[in-house]
């Protein structure tokens, strides 16, 4: 029996008087690759933010890696997010005055990880995503794909058990996006991490092991 790493029960989140997330229940086991597909406005980002502990639900229960996020303070959720989760967002942010290496080191430094360990983790993560050559570059010199690879490596370097991605490849040039999605699935399968990927893209979602559809804040699992 797989360890359950995400447990959501009857989660509700209100936005402007309506339920942007409306009674969502979901359980995700360790190592599962789950896509949550929904069109624009269906509640993906709202649900992503609940799972990441950025927001708290107005009702219901959200638990990730055994931590009851719906019960924790904002500060405790921020610490949890920094130490235990990997977040992949649509437009990865980098500090322009720092090199890629320095950008990747920053979250590890915030976690108090010593320099030698930081560098080892970053080199391993960059090797895993297959882009070690970009470490000394400035972020503005990176191509679309390199920027995503650097963001992915930044996340992997922290060795999180759970990765949450919100339209991470949403604005991609088509072919690059497909290749990147394949390597993301490949890497996550190798590391045994759990991935929950929010997307509008149905064909892409269909390639995950499990696919859920979000419509008007309600989540249903689909068999493809
Ligand atoms: N900050 C906000 N203030 C007001 N309404 C909001 C806010 N954030 C989301 N909403 C509303 O909540 C609903 C769900 O929005 P959400 O951003 O979660 O959807 P989404 O599926 O992520 O959409 P997209 O793919 O366009 O990002 C929408 O009706 C949206 O208008």
From TrEMBL:
One of its GO terms (molecular function) is ATP binding. It comes from the Bacteria. Residues 6-224 form the ABC transporter domain. One of its GO terms (cellular component) is plasma membrane. Keywords: ATP-binding, Nucleotide-binding. Gene3D superfamilies: P-loop containing nucleotide triphosphate hydrolases. This is ATP-binding cassette domain-containing protein. It comes from Guopingia tenuis.
